[in-house]
Design goal:
With 217 residues, the chain is of the alpha/beta class. It has two domains: 3-118, Response regulator (Rossmann fold, 3-Layer(aba) Sandwich); 123-215, Orthogonal Bundle (Arc Repressor Mutant, subunit A), CATH 1.10.10.10. It is 41% helix and 24% strand. It is built from eight helices and 14 strands. The strands form four sheets. A five-stranded parallel sheet has the order 2-1-3-6-7, sandwiched between helices. Strands 8-9-10-11 form a four-stranded antiparallel sheet, with no helix packed on it. It has a three-stranded antiparallel sheet with strand order 12-14-13. β9 (129-132) and β10 form a beta hairpin. α6 (149-160) crosses α7 (168-176) and α6 crosses α8. It is elongated, with a radius of gyration of 18 Å. The model has no long low-confidence stretch (mean pLDDT 89).
């Protein structure tokens, strides 16, 4: 059974979520940053409030992404675009503003787990390119390099759809799992540019002007 870690200091909401979800999942209920950090490695998905008694939920996103790639769905009353962008860029997979529909939340949880189950690409090797997505190890011509969480997701989606042109809208949905209205339009192009620089001398990402991108290697 999949375990969902709830990080929410509102006791009534925390309890309500726990009762609703424990029918289908194991639930770990926590109320603070310090308490939740003890349970991340035992969890398969995180539901994260941002206003916590001992700090900002952005800290949890940063901490989690240092040790895990499990999905993070933010549940927050903060609806500022800049804040949502910060959470997504740090590695949150989705963002729901309060109040939210339990049905929509459950649909997003199911979608997050379906994405994990469909992820069957672990190793990609061709010529001097050697990627191991399961261990987050990447090298070009024997030289290792690091990728951010977002760069890994973009690279994974492009390779998994090799030869297909992916529109910017499709990439926003598959990489960030959120409506592109919440993402700075330059975010995608900046990340693609960073990936290209790390893959030199190879240039496997084709820009299809006015449409999107395609992996051609």
């Amino acid at each position: 059974m999949k375990n969902i870690l709830i990080i929410e200091d509102d006791k009534h909401l925390n309890k309500g979520l726990s009762i609703a979800l424990e029918k289908n999942y194991g639930v770990i209920s926590t109320f603070s940053i310090s308490e939740s950090k003890k349970h991340i490695n035992d969890s398969d998905l995180i539901l994260l409030d941002m206003n916590l008694p001992d700090g900002d939920g952005l800290e949890i996103i940063k901490y989690t992404r240092e040790i895990s790639t499990i999905p993070i769905i933010v549940l927050s009353a903060i609806d500022l675009e800049s804040y949502i962008i910060s959470a997504i860029n740090l590695g949150a997979d989705d963002y729901l503003t309060k109040p939210f529909s339990l049905g929509i939340l459950e649909a997003k949880i199911n979608r997050a787990f379906e994405k994990i189950n469909s992820d069957d690409l672990t190793i990609y090797k061709k010529d001097g390119i050697d990627f191991n997505f399961s261990e987050n190890k990447f090298s070009v011509d024997g030289v290792n390099f690091d990728l951010t969480r977002t760069e890994i997701k973009i690279l994974y989606v492009l390779i998994k759809n090799k030869g297909q042109v992916l529109t910017k809208e499709t990439l926003f949905d598959l990489v960030w799992g959120i409506d592109d209205e919440f993402i700075d339009q330059n975010t995608l192009s900046v990340n693609i540019s960073r990936i290209r620089n790390k893959l030199k001398p190879y240039d496997p990402i084709e820009t299809v002007f006015g449409v999107g991108y395609k992996w051609n290697f």
